[in-house]
């Protein structure tokens, strides 16, 4: 089975490295082109105007694909571990995979539909990506606890749950504040709302 093959651990590492590079490269291009201010722009703002929009879209779509592969490997790993331990229902594992895949589709939507070109589609994609991501992380944390101590340490489970809690806490103000604004441009002047 693929999940038991040595060497698949590079996929999650590649996902993190590639995604980080996507954000950093599009940020650098956007700043150098003068399209965003260097101090803490929105991620989507760094991928709105050409040429950084093309780089951002391409790299985030590759990130979505790598996330699909990573989630599928995790699914297979849990299925294989579950054969001997029976620590979680298979339906829970499948449900978690489906939620994760929805988040990847959301990432693809965010990458394809720029923030200023089609804002409603971009925002729906972001909501699906972040919302599904929070649910996926939480489900994976719960599955990790159920697999203790045979397949995980409690330390790893606590780290995963801490990331889940931080994600949930960050998601709530994102929704609240995003619903309060309707921004259709990047540049803001003090005389505007």
TrEMBL record:
Entry membrane topology: Multi-pass membrane protein
The keyword Ubl conjugation is assigned to this record: no
Membrane-spanning ranges: 7-33, 53-73, 94-112, 124-143, 155-178
Keyword Transcription: no
Listed Pfam families: Frag1
Gene Ontology BP terms: regulation of autophagy
InterPro entries the UniProt entry points to: CWH43_N (IPR019402), DRAM/TMEM150_Autophagy_Mod (IPR050911)
Primary localisation category: membrane
Subcellular location: Endomembrane system
Keyword terms, alphabetized: Membrane, Transmembrane, Transmembrane helix
Gene Ontology CC, one term: lysosome
Occurrences of domain CWH43-like N-terminal (ranges): 8-183
Family of the protein in this entry: Belongs to the DRAM/TMEM150 family.
Protein name: DRAM1 protein
Taxonomic lineage from the root: Eukaryota, Metazoa, Chordata, Craniata, Vertebrata
Gene responsible for this protein: Dram1
């Amino acid at each position: 089975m693929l999940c038991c093959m040595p060497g698949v651990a590079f996929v999650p590492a590649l996902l993190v490295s590639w995604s980080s590079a996507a954000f950093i490269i599009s940020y650098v291009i956007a700043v150098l082109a003068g399209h965003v201010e260097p101090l803490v722009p929105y991620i989507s703002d760094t991928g709105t105007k050409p040429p950084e929009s093309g780089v951002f879209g391409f790299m985030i779509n590759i990130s979505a694909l790598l996330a699909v592969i990573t989630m599928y490997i995790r699914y297979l790993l849990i299925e294989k571990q579950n054969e001997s331990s029976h620590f979680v229902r298979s339906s829970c594992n499948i449900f978690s995979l489906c939620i994760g895949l929805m988040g990847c589709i959301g990432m693809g939507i965010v990458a394809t539909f720029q923030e200023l070109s089609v804002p409603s589609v971009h925002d729906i994609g972001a909501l699906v990506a972040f919302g599904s991501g929070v649910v996926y992380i939480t489900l994976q944390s719960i599955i990790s606890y159920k697999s203790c101590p045979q397949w995980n340490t409690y330390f790893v489970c606590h780290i995963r749950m801490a990331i889940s809690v931080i994600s949930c806490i960050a998601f709530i103000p994102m929704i609240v504040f995003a619903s309060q604004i309707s921004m259709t441009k990047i540049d803001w002047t003090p005389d505007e709302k």
